[in-house]
Amino acid sequence: MALAPGLHFVATPIGAARDITLRALDILRDADVLAAEDTRTLRHLMEIHGIALNGRPLVAYHDHNGDAAGPRLIRALEEGRTVAYASEAGTPLVSDPGFELGRAAIAAGLPVLTAPGPSAVLAALTVSGLPSDRFLFAGFLPSTTAARQKALREVAGVQATLIFYESPKRLAASLRDMAEVMGPRAAVICRELTKRFEETVRGPLPELAAAYADQTVKGEIVVLIDRAAPQAATEADVEAALRTALQSASVKDAAADVAARLNLPKRDVYQMALRLT
Fold first, then answer.
1. Mind listing the pLDDT tens digit for each residue in 173-184?
2. 2 falls within a domain
């Protein structure tokens, strides 16, 4: 089957080369133009899987050359050619410069497609043992202590598992700040996922901060932190929520909605709603 016209985002392995999908290999084999954050990494991956370049353009597209490489790739798409963009590792657009390329293609009315596959975010969440029903990927934290703590405070109250990428050189400092801002929450450190020296370490943030304080670590790191414990709603909170809900709903429906959102007994909330009407 011929490759559909458009920009194809191709997820690539985060470690084990065999984690690439069959569809991704098809796209890399058939695309008219290949683009990558790191062309050496993509060329090596193609060599492993026996895919020849066959004279096709192989374009580097990264944070430092997007202004020049982006228009070239958009022109190729406008000419009807298929373009495959591969991240250095993992899913494109997740902490990856392909974001701007995708936006440019969409703005030009060009098709954007994806060949999903490996993702360090989802791989780490899968093995973490932390709640997976809601999660927030917050990317890399700032490099300075003050900015890092500010960023952590901004997400500390989010009712979701928090996921960060981190540099091995900053891991100890980040864990120290995480423990200071978020206290003894459960956390997980995933290092070198799918690779030979893969490691997953679990524990409360203060314990992890102490354990890594003097360690020298290497590799790709994902840090996951359990969500904050929900705060019990006060009577004032319930009343405020009911007054808002009653503006557009019946007593019964407003009480049901507020009870569900605040995890409270429906009968108690209904009685309060009656008193407010």
1. 999 999 999 999
2. no
